[in-house]
């Protein structure tokens, strides 16, 4: 999408993600994008969210995008400490939301973070399915985001189903439990309301064409006759994001190679100071 | 206890559950002691693994890994884990976060399995042959039976402990309580041993109960290079160094000589000493 | 919320799980409100019941009780419960302490049952037809399948809560967390509503999370005549009076008029007022 | 048994109970006898016990026999607060011991606290089986005590099995899990080493004869040729019990009728003061 001087791509995407939240649910902050989307949503769009500092740390805190300090935020802000058991109970009772950033997502919303190639003879062994099977078999809303929409990330069929998508297998075994609901990419917003629960365009970001999307996807995405343009962030949205992420941890997710490494080191060196500036009580704890 | 006494209690072929989560509160000093011993063919159980699993694979101590995740989070993939997976060098079994917890909990509750929907409509069920699909005895609903995971040994690292084996965890608890309860023998390292009276001030942060522990070792910075909230954050610079040294065998031997084949106090010296660690990692 | 709003949300025939344990932290002010409403045919779920169950049976509000225990501890048996059992006046289902917990936990984990050995080789299995024996899918071991317990409503009483529905429990937690998570709607009374900032000081004593609660009512002494540690102990003198008034219908009508068919503030006056309660029961 | 001026019956029985404990296990204090037995054992016979103030309250505390203050003790002494889940995990992993006081116990060690008569048409509906099924299906040692050994309490067959005894039903379904181990009554100490896992005399209290036991039991209890006499408490045992229970709550369990009621009221009125005297910190909490 073409850049707009009022906001960067990351701010556009985070705002779009924030606007998906609703209700009184726990929100886990596992990536910088997820943390900022939760924080912005809580401030502007879904005031009842119960936001966590890390996948597991204290509830009712203001997450700060960080490389290594998630748990320390709970300490600084007090917060309500949780256990893994409580996180999973919130998942099973559908009181939990999370933005997941898969390596691959396919036509039916199946997602993969485990392996490229055959699981038994991996081309690239990634990390393992973590808690995505639990999320996708229990939550009524599952949010995915992909920062580089391409034929490598948005694929006809994932190499391995870490997360359950739509289709007969889900219908037979999970029934009403869970289903992928939204995918936000750098090109648009998608859902799974196409024929047979397949991916469909909900809106495209300003300046993005359907042709570009189809060209960058591993399959033909269902599109309605008239496609809305994704609403851009407001000035207030952008300001909230910038204030909440002075170290610009969010930028790391969009970078790679030496530029990312350099930025990474600089953020890591500065994050303690930023934390102490945001939560002065913390410095006194030691 | 000492680290050596702990390691002496862990024979080759043991099933070892490890607490912590990726870069948080891994019992790394105990892991390094295990890695430099002659122990082989360990069967590891981790929920969310990181440098713990990767290091033990790197030193050839492992024959099987049961895991929901092994990675270095913001730093990327786990190099030895990835290589071993791609070369099919060891046996791997992919579980999921809750099913590892349920497998440990089944052992605690002394039942052969616990039921869940997790894993249905995913490929985890296809590659993990330990799970079994079955129908619930009431309505015939299709479920996954998660078999009991039975660790011989659990290794965990906590903030404080008393000499009797009660442990205080101040940051995230991860799956440490489950590991401690499920294992036949649990060894706990801690930043500091405190008196039982002082320990009781921590109320519900006393998460590890002595009836479930076998031995305690005082090992300050015992989670390094992972973090131990609220005492110190993960040492991402050291972990970057680890990753660099995992690129080839020579570099890895250098890392191992420097940081694994040494005792805990020399390990800290080689990090620049406690003062330098404090300056870099204390929050 | 007010007690009346809570009661208005509970139609006749509801399945109601009650927190607390025998003489400890029972949500008695909510129970009394329910008892004086026109609600009938309640199906109660309690792990360890006491005056809560007994009072609701006494006012004819109950059609079924699922329980592991109903009694007055040191004071003896529960009079209305005992009479109803002996007269076979209602439906009763005897469970056990862990199986009630497991039944609630099954609902939380969204599975139709959880397995256990508890109950095998006892007569609980013969009289409780909700349980089912089955063989585990791995080794054919004989187990008990505990079916999911699905409360429509949970009623609990805690020390402090914020207005959003997070609750602090300072004494024993009993099964309140399980009730709150398992029920479709959870109503919580508390000794005092405090600010969310103040609440966060209680750390892991914040046991009830607002995502699991529907409404909060401030009801000081809301557990009376049961105790609410560390604020006040059980009022055994009042409970002795309760037992005396349960001997026959006239005496019971007198008790009900005096203590049930009245609002929470007049109830406290009839105990002699807050000063007298403090003098008698504050620890 | 004939009274001895050095100790009362309750002190004799509590000491006998205390001597059954061993190892590093949690001990629940559900009755005054159980609490005092745990306390005495911890002081003299089994120093590694982890003693609880109530069935569920804090671990590592000194229990005080009490009518209503169990939970408050945790507060006063700090202690390590536990949850019901932790109690049951300790039961399932066999790290838990408890003295249970059943209404009936039979030849095979089955026990009943639920009902006299038929469960569906009760003569006396008591309280329900509580956690006894869990204890008896998981603990390797189960301790019972009965304060009035009679044909009503020590019966041929219980009216209802709340707790699993020995025999084919246990062997078929529980295998190695649990089994009743000891019964202490006012007449003697019994175990289940008789033919087919039936009750056997281990020792008789001073002055008690086998004839008396058989006469007061609902069935013939197996007895070895030579029967030891139960060891009496030492002076130190008795002193520890008396110091730990200044209100004499333990005496209540042996009384009934008006005498019990009167004693009950007096203890209830005085227990707060006793608690504050034992744990002065408590008075400052309010």
Summarize it:
Chain A is an alpha/beta fold and 286 residues long. Chain A contains 10 helices and 13 strands. Chain A folds into 2 domains: 1-97 and 231-286, no CATH class; 101-224, Glutaconate Coenzyme A-transferase.
Structural overview:
The complex is a heterotetramer, with two copies of chain A (286 residues) and two copies of chain B (283 residues). Chain A is of the alpha/beta class and 286 residues long. Chain A has two domains: 1-97 and 231-286, no CATH class; 101-224, 3-Layer(aba) Sandwich (Glutaconate Coenzyme A-transferase). Helices cover 34% and strands 16% of the residues of chain A. Chain A has a five-stranded mixed β-sheet with strand order 4-9-11-12-13, with helices on both faces. In chain A, strands 2-1-3 form a three-stranded parallel β-sheet. A three-stranded mixed β-sheet of chain A has the order 6-5-10, with no helix packed on it. Chain B has a single domain (3-95, 150-281), classed as Glutaconate Coenzyme A-transferase. In chain B, strands 1, 2, 3, 4, 8, 9, 10, 11 and 12 form a nine-stranded mixed β-sheet that branches. A three-stranded antiparallel β-sheet of chain B has the order 5-7-6, covered by helices on one side. In chain B, a hairpin with a 5-residue loop joins β8 (153-161) and β9 (167-168). The two termini of chain B are 29 Å apart. The interface between A and B is large, with 58 and 51 residues.
